[in-house]
Amino acid sequence: MKKAAVLLSGLLLLTVGVVHADCTIKLQHDLRVSSESIQVTEQGKTLYEIRQGGHLSIDGKAVNLSRRQRKLTEEYAGEIAALVPRWISMVSEALVLTESSLALALGDAFGPDSEASQKATGAVAQARQNFERRALSGDGEYRLSAAEYNDLENSLEEELEHTFSSAMRAVLSEIGRSLVSDEGSLLQKMDAFGEHMRRMGEAMHNAAEVLEETGEELCISMQDIQRLEREIAKQIPQLAEYPLFD
After folding, report:
1. Range(s) of the domain holding residue 177
2. Which pLDDT value is given to residue 29?
3. pTM of the model
């Protein structure tokens, strides 16, 4: 059961892993991004906040900035505010593509209304909804957890292993029924199922290629933000205590 879940989650990780392929940058703290500000937090406590216009507060206290410093913080906040929604969107899109690929393969193999197809695609849909619930708030705020970002592969695999448990029973049941039916030989049935799985793998590979360009752009954006962060730390020593990227 677990091996089947890992197989399917592995197809997903071909897609969501592209942003990590060339980027070894780790997030040190959690982020909350809204139209009005970005907040860098740790265990629910706000370490610092940059509001519109580059206004900075650290540990809840406003910091007096020069015009140059304010311009730097405003630029920094703007880059982060652009990056976070794109990263969240890419993961969500990867889950949508995984769902559609499963629907294609299992729908062809067992029928779109089969228990296997419905439960497997439903499991991915649930994983996507759980991710989006954690990452998005009702008031338009984006949330990026350092732990989830840095360990996305394992966190999604655990999520899918949990939600796939009943789905995999349905898939194996459908395979069993197919193998004992009177339609075609055992070898033909196994070959047909293998072909459906191969097509699903191809669909996921194609999905990964579609998202690869976005992942590369995000990687470059993170590296640019990291360089800007180092410059800001020199200009505003108080912020050097709270590096966002490592």
Report:
1. 2-25+88-139+150-240
2. 93
3. 0.73
